[in-house]
Amino acid sequence: MPELDHRDVWVYVEHRGDEVHPVSWELLGVARRLADELGEEAAAVVLGHGARHLAERAFACGADRAYLVDDPVLEPYRAGAHAQVLARLVERHRPGIVLLGATGVGRELAGLVATAVGTGLTADVTELAVDRGRRLLEATRPTFGGKQLATIVCERHRPQMATVRPGVFPAPEPEPGRQGTVIPAEAGVVDPDLVAEVLEVLPADGRVDLERARVVVAGGRGLGEAGNVALLRELAEVLGGVVAGSRPAVEAGWIPREAQVGQTGKVVRPRLYVAVGISGAVQHLVGMQDAEVVVAINRDPDAPIFQVADYGIVGDLRQVVPALTEELRLRLRSLASRGATGGEPVRTGSR
Amino acid sequence: MPAIVNPDDLHALEEALRWRERLGGRVTVLTMGPPQAEAALRRALSLGADRAVLLTDRAFAGADTYATTLVLARALRRLEREQGAPFDLVWCGRQALDGDTGQVGPGLAARLGVPLLAYVARVRRLDPAARRIEVERVLDRRREVLRARLPALVTVERTLNAVRYAALPDLLAALEQPIVAWGAAELGLAPDEVGLRGSPTRVVRSGAAPLRRRQTRLIPGAAADPRQAAAQLADLLLAAGVLDGGGEGGG
Ligand SMILES: Cc1cc2nc3c(=O)[nH]c(=O)nc-3n(C[C@H](O)[C@H](O)[C@H](O)COP(=O)(O)OP(=O)(O)OC[C@H]3O[C@@H](n4cnc5c(N)ncnc54)[C@H](O)[C@@H]3O)c2cc1C
Ligand SMILES: Nc1ncnc2c1ncn2[C@@H]1O[C@H](COP(=O)(O)O)[C@@H](O)[C@H]1O
To answer: CA-CA distance, A139 to A114, in Å (whole number)?
Structure first.
């Protein structure tokens, strides 16, 4: 049995230049809590070139330490290079827990690193706790269509690794001036044969990231036809939100696949979620139940979506949605013209 | 591939078949699973795969990603030895329907010691002579053009291609084709290296996911007067403060 004297809780800080993915701060908040429970330290891992200032931001969000590898080989992000450097850091400093966001970057990196260092990985986690007596991380993730939650441990291997869904944990309130220790580390030799080169980065297409949107207007099979998506779009526009859909709406080709909400789609956590012509199957609910406020519009008063909604209108979406768009437009416009603070439509920038 | 062919894997197979049609070579499909997974392999054969390998053993049951990639990697090495030539590319789906972790591709790349090209939406160039592959991939919100040396491992997005369907004669022919079956012994693996025993992670609890129920305020009268119901809802939303542009979004 390997020795399990590993300690501390690490968070891989996912960034592009100065832009840090919010899940990294969310995870630092979690790492802080787990580290306190274990009597250990929370550390940020910052890999990049010229990214030292991110360490300060990590301290403000709860990190005690930041492992900083500053090397041109790490810029731009290439999975193969980051994985080799992260694996080496893990082997050298022996953390007990390593957390990454369950983003595209986090998933590929975690998969590479966990296997390279020979440990277990729990993917797409939505709850994290520690068993203090056994010093075990208990990572909980939805399985079987989101109907079940499975709690997973990694008993005999270290570190215990997990990727965690964005938006599940609150971002900590930054404490400016909070201090920490920067631990500079060398990148070491990066084997170029294991690295896919980035030849070109095609720009982001300007769409708002569904997972970060503050207002989501989602349609389901009840839309009935492609033309009715326009009703959602108009409502989303007034609210400054984005359009999404249930799986049948995606399968009908009304809504793009990347905008599917639910178990096999995205998990969203907006301030406002408007479910239009969606019945409320559990596979859909697991993707939106953490929205701050849920509105349901459905012509069936017994639709399960109403049980998870804060506000509901029983009616035909073809009448209710345009009416709602109009009423909101009137109110938001008059608020804006009165110059009331905070009265403008919700913006959907990153949170 | 699992027992029902995982949709992502059909796209992976499709892409492999298309490149074989252009460049020659061989497409081998592998799946680790129970004996019934043979059906998935037959389907792949009917679509045009040259060879199928079923990795099945009671001891493989309960494997997590780590134990799964060990078996897959060993099988690939054995295939290479038998063929007397290394593979050029391993194609995987992005994620499986059941486990849905998306970790097998990256883990397998790490075990094989080859570059990973994840979330590939288009293969731009594949040049076995120059030992190069060039792809477009979707990484969160952006697209990247990546180039790697062969051999490499690719995980594919479903948008990569439209899959073909097998003609009836091919379906029937696939029933006749031999399928190689290997267990732990054939791969030189001990029972405690595979399956549940070889898995670092273990499920300790599982249960129904609690759903968050809410106190619902139903606004009546929309059938008779949708405008009036909508007005009432708009007022409630304003009062609830969710239309307030200031402050931070949830989470
Ligand atoms: C493994 C697995 C994974 C899945 N993953 C997902 C997932 O990620 N996301 C997802 O959404 N689903 C998923 N599903 C599917 C899920 O089980 C449901 O089938 C699906 O969510 C139902 O979509 P819906 O509500 O749009 O359609 P329906 O259930 O058909 O509901 C349509 C609703 O529209 C209402 N309606 C109809 N016409 C009107 C009208 N004119 N005005 C107002 N209301 C109207 C009806 O009353 C009804 O309530 C998954 C299923 C499985 C088995
Ligand atoms: N048991 C298996 N046998 C063969 N390939 C697998 C197996 N499990 C996963 N894969 C491959 O890895 C991909 C991602 O699976 P997962 O990581 O489980 O989401 C799948 O689409 C398959 O291509």
So the answer is: 15
Q: Which of residues 191-210 of B touch A (CB under 8 A)?
A: 199-209
Distance in angstroms (rounded) separating the CA atoms of residues B185 and B98: 27
How far is residue A318's CA from residue A246's CA, in Å, rounded to a whole number?
18
Q: In what order do the strands lie in the sheet with A293-298?
A: A242-245, A215-219, A272-276, A293-298, A311-314, B217-219
Residue A60 to residue B131: CA distance in whole angstroms = 47
**Ligand 2 center to residue B130 CA distance, Å?**
29
Give the Cα separation of A293 and A274 in Å (integer): 9
- Kindly give, in sequence order, each residue whose CB lies less than 8 Å from that of residue A310, ignoring residues fewer than 6 positions away: A293, A294, A295, B214, B215, B216, B217, B240
CA distance A54 to A58: 6
Helix, strand, coil percent values for chain A (each to nearest 5): 35, 25, 40
pLDDT on residue B209: 72
Q: Is B30 helix (H, G, I), strand (E, B) or coil?
A: strand
Edge-to-edge strands of the sheet including A197-202?
A197-202, B142-149, B132-139, B116-127, B152-156, B89-93
Residues in chain A: 351
Q: What is the pLDDT of residue A28?
A: 98
SS3 B95: coil
pLDDT digits (tens, 9 = 90+) for A239-288: 989 999 999 999 999 999 889 999 888 888 899 999 999 999 988 998 89
Are the beta carbons of A183 and A238 closer than 8 angstroms? Answer: no
Return the residue in B65, B69, B111, B140 with the most chain A beta carbons within 10 A, the one to mutate for interface testing.
Answer: B140
- Answer yes or no: are the C-beta atoms of B198 and B60 closer than 8 Å: no
A323 → chain B, closest CA residue? B227
Written as tens digits, the pLDDT of chain B (251 aa) is 333 578 789 999 999 999 999 999 999 999 999 999 999 999 999 999 999 999 999 999 999 999 999 999 999 999 999 999 999 999 998 776 555 678 999 999 999 999 999 999 999 999 999 999 999 998 877 899 999 999 999 999 888 898 999 999 999 999 999 999 999 999 999 999 999 999 999 999 998 877 777 889 999 888 899 999 999 999 999 988 888 643 233 33
| ipTM above threshold 0.90 | no
According to DSSP, residue A145 is labeled T
Residue A216 identity (one-letter amino acid): V
What is chain A's alpha carbon radius of gyration, rounded to the nearest angstrom? 22
Q: How far is B199 from chain A (nearest CA, A)?
A: 7
- Nearest residue to A167 via CA among A337, A4, A343, A30: A30
In chain A, which residues have their Cβ closer than 8 Å to the Cβ of B144? 198, 200-202
The burial class, CB within 10 Å (0-12 / 13-18 / 19+), for A215 is buried
Confidence (pLDDT) at B101: 73
Task: Tell me how crowded residue B162 is: count the other CB atoms within 10 A of its CB.
Answer: 8
Sort strands B142-149 and A65-70 into parallel, antiparallel or unpaired.
Answer: unpaired
